Amino acid sequence: MKPILFAVPLALVISSVVAETAKDHAPESIVVTASRLDQSADNLSQSVELISSDDIEKLWASSATEVLRQVPGTNVIQQGGRGGGGAILLRGGEPNFTVVLIDGVQVNDPTNSRGGSYDISSLEQAQIDNVEIVFGTMSPVYGSDALSGVVNFITRDGESGSSVSTEVGTQGYGSLSGFYGEDMGTVDVGVGVYATDDKGDVPGSDYSAKGLNGKLGADFLEGGTADLSFGYQATESAGFPEDSGGPELAGIRDVETRDADEYRLGLDLSYDFLDTLQGGLLANYYRREEGYASPGIESGGFIPANSADIDFSRKQLLATLGSQFGEDLALLVGG
Fold it and tell me: What is the CA radius of gyration of the chain?
């Protein structure tokens, strides 16, 4: 049966849910990123890749960059060491064509020097529980920035339990993280802190980060859920500028430096009125303060030294009403 599509004013997405994906997902795998509705991955027409907490643990990855490198259809660009920054390309699209979410909060900054792409090397693996990747244009849901797709990093919650971990490696690498999680039935709470230093094996690269993540979830009435998430991260990084030639070929031997502070807050309210009708209210806030200084580029074309101080913030409020009609059609309207 072919997908059935409708055009509805104020509609953010009308999504068919015919199971066309060739990937094998467990029946209990629920995806929210693709349509803002809780849907089984088997019933989505979009190509979706799910990375579970078990998958991440098996990789022994230190950052989101290493996690995403294992996913077919993705290309992760790392400019030298971790201090040089990283970006993700979905199916060959430009990095700024991919919307990056953390717990549903969009963290792309269109005012940055990277054209709006998000530096995924700054995401700490220790705080990530799972990842949802949706390939293909998602502009009806997330706007024109989502031409290549959407990546949603979902952090740990109260059901993840508590843990403390530390890692020490060569080239000045060290990390320490701790997480407390408690599931109390109708309420669960989780909060984690982390700190990382990574000099890297590429000359000129330097990276350090510290931050915290937290979640509070609760069930209310009968069929209602409320999820509050928050996060803060401070990073300092240094590396040779993009297209400079790196440590071996760069004509200018000074490195580019970046200091950034990120704040995010998200609230997701959902209520199932009927077996097939779901209402939702999404509210989130994101702010990024960044200062960078670049020595410029001599190799392959001259770019003069430049610097900037950026203070970007985004506020979003969205009310939705969605319904799924059997296994062939899902409808979502909102604004």
Answer: 21
Cα gap 19→149, rounded to integer Å: 19
Cα 238 → chain centroid: 22
Residues facing residue 269 across a β-bridge: 226, 281
Question: Cα separation of 183 and 158, whole Å?
Answer: 5
User: In the structure encoding, which two tokens stand for residue 22, read together?
Assistant: 């060739």
Pairing relationship of beta strands 86-90 and 74-78 according to DSSP bridges: antiparallel
CB–CB of 256/79 below 8 Å? no
Pairing of strands 149-155, 98-102: parallel
**Distance, CA of 1 to CA of 208 (rounded, Å):** 52
pTM of the model: 0.84
Write down the H helix ranges in the chain.
53-59, 64-68, 139-142, 246-249
Decide: helix, strand or coil at residue 99: strand
pLDDT along the chain (335 residues), means of 10: 34 37 45 62 71 84 80 83 80 88 92 82 84 88 86 92 89 90 94 91 88 95 92 92 84 91 95 83 95 87 89 93 69 70
User: Residue 212, Cβ neighbours under 10 Å: how many?
Assistant: 15
Domains of the chain, start order: 13-334 (2.170.130.10)
- In the block, tokens 């392959």 appear at 300
